[in-house]
Design goal:
Blueprint: H1 3-8, E1 12-19, E2 22-34, E3 39-49, H2 58-72, E4 75-80, H3 87-95
Parallel strand pairs: 3-4
Antiparallel strand pairs: 1-2, 2-3
């Protein structure tokens, strides 16, 4: 099962951004209900802009449109992760009102025989 097929098994919002037929970028949002945040929450799991569209306000505009869509779907919080090596992306998110929150801790889990498609 590839990444796109796995994304089909959870509640997601997927979009490809275009400009006059040319692909500008894409986004993948994953949803869940958070008791801590008291409502429907979304994770912007993927947000990518083609290099020719960066630094021109396109990312700011697309994130603003995405926020409106998510608000209309009852989302109360939008979260995302930024790798420290992506300083331009971090500055975009900060301009759009995001701010660093808690430290994210991660642990890779090995697939069990039941979850890896073999059982």
């Amino acid at each position: 099962m590839d990444r796109a097929q796995k994304a089909e098994s959870i509640e997601t919002l997927k979009g490809v951004f275009t400009d006059a037929g040319a692909v500008v970028g894409y986004a993948l949002v994953v949803f869940w209900f958070s008791l801590e945040l008291e409502g429907r929450t979304a994770l912007l799991d993927e947000f990518y802009l083609m290099p020719d569209y960066r630094g021109k306000g396109t990312g700011t505009s697309l994130l603003g449109q995405l926020e409106l869509i998510l608000q209309s779907q009852g989302v109360r919080w939008l979260r995302l992760e930024v790798d420290p090596v992506h300083g331009e992306a971090a500055r975009l998110y900060e301009r759009c009102g995001f701010h660093p929150g808690r430290t994210l801790w991660s642990k890779a889990l090995q697939p069990s025989a039941k979850s890896d498609g073999s059982g």
